[in-house]
Amino acid sequence: MHPYAWLVTGLLLVSTAGPFIKLARMDAFALVFLRLACAGPLFLAWAAAAGRPLALPREHRNRVLLGGVLLASHFLLWVKAFDLTSFASNLLLLIAQPVMAALIGSRIGERPGRETWVALAVALAGLALIAKGDVELGGRALLGDLLSVLGGGAICLFYAVSRHARVALPIQTFMGWTLLTAAAAALPVALLAGSEFGPIREPLSLMGWTPTPWLWLGGLVLVTTMGGHGSMNAAARGVRLFVVNMAIVLEPPLAVLLGVAFLGETVTATQVVGGAVLAAAVWIALLPEWRSARGPAAPPGIRGE
């Protein structure tokens, strides 16, 4: 598929994360580990079934391993931030992700243009509308805000440091090893935090975990992680780092819409307007890409290097 088709597909699928996590009702850190530990082998099985090489070449090994640690950091920080600060505050702070992507991109040859900064300003306005009246800061919330910003920075760095491996390797192989590394990095954190791993300790009794949480975990693994994050990484092979991270600002309003449709959540007129403003911000950010697409094709994956 075209990189923008991957981007749209990934954005829609990754927006299911919030609803699936809410419905699973599992321990947060245990959920992160189980999600990664299940998705990694599935990607490698997919690679084997498709006849893709499974070996991780030495020249890409360090980048993939570092990328996995950064991805685990993103998931762990993101989950913990929601325990400490409000969902609306996390929405507002999501603007930090494309800002950091623009700054990181400038260090790897992606020159932010006028549309980049206009898009960021419009996105900030849209997020402020969505979060209007619901941003309450205090000591606990400030810590959550800090974790949210650090989580956004971690995934920006993940896309940047692993970009060469992402282009060179089959996407299934790249994602498989990245997620397995992330699972290995997340496990000690979950254990030190005292997370409940009942299904691992007593697989027959499931320690009170009924089949329902496993159903939603399966959705998180197959739909959000394999479908969503797999598609976003496929898109990152052909579009700029900033564009991938800018598209993520649409995830919260899409997640809200899913909550309205399936979880009985409510949405205000102001939030609807804010979502429309966010869509406009993404459109502005994509203008340079659409213009360049009309010209000679650039080498896939690593633009401006």
Explain what the structure shows:
- The protein has one domain (3-293).
- The chain has helices spanning 3-14, 17-24, 28-49, 58-84, 87-93, 96-107, 114-130, 139-161, 163-168, 171-192, 198-201, 211-235, 241-247, 251-262, 269-293.
- The chain is 75% helix and 0% strand.
- The chain is mainly alpha-helical and 305 residues long.
- The chain is built from 15 helices and no strands.
Keywords for this entry:
305 residues, mainly alpha, 15 helices, globular, disordered C terminus
Summarize the entry for a quick read.
The protein has 305 residues and is an all-alpha fold.
Secondary-structure blueprint of this entry?
Elements: H1 3-14, H2 17-24, H3 28-49, H4 58-84, H5 87-93, H6 96-107, H7 114-130, H8 139-161, H9 163-168, H10 171-192, H11 198-201, H12 211-235, H13 241-247, H14 251-262, H15 269-293
Element pattern in H and E: HHHHHHHHHHHHHHH
* Radius of gyration, whole Å: 19 Å
Please report the total strand number as a whole number.
Answer: 0
Q: What is the general shape?
A: globular
Class from secondary-structure proportions:
mainly alpha
Q: Mind describing the biggest β-sheet?
A: none
